[in-house]
Amino acid sequence: MTQEFGEIAAWTVGDNTVRLWGMTIEERNARIARASGIAVGREAGPGATVLSNAAYAFDPAWWRHVLANPGMVLCLGGVPVLAHARTPDEAQRIAKAMESASPMGPLALDGEGAFTLLRYEDGPTIENKSLRKRETPFVLPLRADTVRQIERASYFGAYKGVTDILTKYLWPEWALVLTRICAALRITPNMVTSVGAVFCVIATVLFAQGHYWWGMATGLVFMVLDTVDGKLARCTITSSAWGNVFDHGMDLVHPPFWWWFWATGLAAWNLSFDSATFWWVQAAIQLGYWVQRAIEGVFMRQNGGMHIHVWRRFDSRFRLITARRNPNMVILFVATALQRPDIGLIVVAWWTVLSCAIHAVRLVQAWALRARGGRIVSWLSDEGEKMEKAA
Predict the structure, then answer these.
(1) Distance (Å, rounded) from C-alpha 275 to C-alpha 284?
(2) Residue range 220-243, pLDDT digits in tens
(3) For the chain, domain boundaries
(4) pLDDT 10s digits, 246-268
(5) Residues in contact with 46: Cβ distance below 8 Å, sequence separation at least 6, in sequence order
(6) Is CATH 1.20.120.1760 the right assignment for the domain spanning 158-390?
(7) What is the dihedral of CA 155, 163, 390, 125, to 10 degrees?
């Protein structure tokens, strides 16, 4: 029960002994419901009820979408998989269809009180604001022979649609293996974040001593674990407020230390900057990093929490390479391979300034658009999708 949705209950209809990420489907659905503040029961509630078919597994994004749309029924092959019944009578009729694997058609009333049928085969897309993407999330029958397929679908479904190039393309498969191992061993996301934090500190020390290759190897472990903890939390539905603060706090704080100690480590290579170069490089990187973060925060505050990286398709593409930790590490890796880690840090400084300038321009453009009476709409939203197609 929540103030936002009023009196409402969650009910998983049927039984299924097949486990997904170490959980029964009933436990998984209960975690999804509780994450939205919804009471969980084994039957319809006195008011509205969100019903989940135990014979199927689905992305949590569908649950949130159906929860927000009373009377909506998500079907696969005509059989209801997930439904938001507005009354106990509707809930009982939908539950019977789920238990008997009957098509939803006969239950769809005409006129007032009709259900909104969402046929998965039609490929409906929904916006996932928290993961910054628009997609058709997975729905699959839950059987012993489909578990691996579902785990893979849920893992990639937990990926942000807008992120950096390494996270998006280089290590998803590595992180999937580690996520499965962690789930099987019941390792929590916060445990993964803690181990990653240790590797992050070790990488910082190695950079300070000029051991760049070992530092980058250790940093790589940290960066992969930084992906694993979030995916593990989303796949096992174990996200927590503390875990979110811990993970994002680490992401926010550590990069400036890496760039500072990379510069001091140049002494071990006999490539130290003179005083003037050291300070302008650090000023560009450190100030540019925090100013860029500030611009992102201002944009979100002024546009209803929407990230600047999902405003237009250009912004999402630029997020792949903008001056954040991972793209910067690519620059430093190439420079170190060429035996010039000093030049690599100078390139990072210039790239940070350029990225910061581009973000500043986008913020000003948003101000100008609103001043003309325009609306800032994400290209991933329903309205944004229509605007993209029209363009």
Answers:
(1) 14
(2) 999 999 999 999 999 999 988 888
(3) 8-128, 158-390
(4) 888 999 999 999 999 999 999 99
(5) 7, 88
(6) yes
(7) 10
